[in-house]
Task: structure prediction
Amino acid sequence: MRLKNYNTRFADYALEHSKSKGRARSVIFLISLQADEDGMVCLTSKEISDSLAINTKTLFRALAKLEEIGELQRVRRGGKSGGNVYHVFPNGLPDDFVGYIDKQDSEAHS
Result:
């Protein structure tokens, strides 16, 4: 899979605050990188599993764990590209969360 978006805000939050461990943490990070500004992303299970070099059974366990802990919500199966539509951190990010890129920008302007 060729990464299209690099949404560092959601990815930063995933790295710093995700309660997930192991493969689930890798999955939430990858999906977060692809999310749009609202936290929505459409990916196939093949795209995710190939990118992380994991089998689909492992991926499905990781996705189930992420849904269970509330860090991922499957909004729709089989989006327009054949992938599932996911919402990362569906409860939103805290208003006061400052991601790595935001920190770098504020330090550069200080």
